[in-house]
Amino acid sequence: IRYTGLWLAAALLAAGCNKATPPAEVSLGEVRDVSQVMSRVDTCLREGDTNGALEVLGQAIGDTAYAQNRSWLFTQTLNILISADRADEAQARYLGLVGKDEELTRVGFGVLCGYHQGKGGDAFETWIRQMIPLPLPQDLLTQIYAWQISVFRARGQWDKIGELAPDCIRKFDAGVYRQLLGDPVLAELSAGRYDQAGKILDALEKNAGSNQTLKDLIAIERTDILFQRGDWPGAEQRFVAVAGGLSDGELAGWVPRVIGGCIRQKQLDLADRLCDVVLKGPKEKIAAKDQAAAPWIEVAKARQDTAAIPVRLETLRGLGVSPQVLLD
């Protein structure tokens, strides 16, 4: 539903929005059509009675007859307050709902995020800091932390990224905090800023404590830096040292990236040796072996060593590599 009159009235009568008169007494009675509610809101705004408009919206939000329109009605409430230069009140209303009403928490998050982003300066970061301690739904809280980390990265505040690590470990599961803390490292690596990536890893290491997931991330990314710098002997040595201590899942996620990169860089002998490390590793690391199988065959193809391919396939079968991997 679109009510252009609402916004026209809000814009034209902003000067009268904060008048000191008490809110109008408004009764919704038996009204159940949301368009009639908004007609009353429009009337209040045309008369400069923002408080009356907010009273109508508040009653409708609390009325189960308008349950399907709650999100939309709350959006209008916040936007009217913002248009009336009462953003602090909009924020206060929102904070009062966080942890109590997930539906309105989500819709209000979007409205206030857009408002603070549009203000420029430090407004958005200030808002982020206000959101961090709140009991937001996990996906919204994850987004808040991602934004905060992005701000710190843009400013080169590596230590501050590290200082967020204990908080992330406490609030999120391993997959989420690993990505949150790993993304800025990967971004620096992708941009070829290896020293900066190393500084982030230094900061994370100071705050990793005994957390194995974070320790594994740091070990992997330090090795990736060597690979990307083209320090092949150093990278190989670190890979051998690190791979043995990783879980099957962690190693399986790393193998395609590292060995695939070696193949793209025409480091076929190195790729072969790395595959050998994984394939001859602990027998329980089945997923990692599955991930090393394809690049091992690819090396033989890149060398045009057709005789080696059936031999390698047979070896992989003997190692218990998934038949589906072999078929692929």
Structural class: mainly alpha
Low-confidence stretches: 1-31
Strand content: under 5%
| Structural Rg | 29 Å
Largest sheet: none
Question: Cα distance, first to last residue?
Answer: 51 Å
Helical proportion?
over 70%
Q: Say how many strands there are.
A: 0
- What is the ordering of alpha helices and beta strands? HHHHHHHHHHHHHHHHHHH
Helix count, per DSSP?
A: 19
What is the approximate shape?
elongated
User: What would the average pLDDT be, to the nearest integer?
Assistant: 89
Q: What does this entry look like structurally?
A:
This protein has 328 residues and is mostly helical. It contains 19 helices and no strands. It has helices at 4-12, 34-46, 50-61, 70-83, 87-95, 102-119, 123-131, 138-154, 158-163, 165-171, 174-190, 194-207, 212-229, 232-243, 248-264, 268-279, 286-302, 308-318, 323-327.
Characteristic terms for this protein:
elongated; single chain; 328 residues; mainly alpha
Topology:
Elements: H1 4-12, H2 34-46, H3 50-61, H4 70-83, H5 87-95, H6 102-119, H7 123-131, H8 138-154, H9 158-163, H10 165-171, H11 174-190, H12 194-207, H13 212-229, H14 232-243, H15 248-264, H16 268-279, H17 286-302, H18 308-318, H19 323-327
Helix pairs in contact: 1-2, 2-3, 3-4, 4-5, 4-6, 5-6, 6-7, 7-8, 8-11, 10-11, 11-12, 11-13, 12-13, 13-14, 13-15, 14-16, 15-16, 15-17, 16-17, 17-18
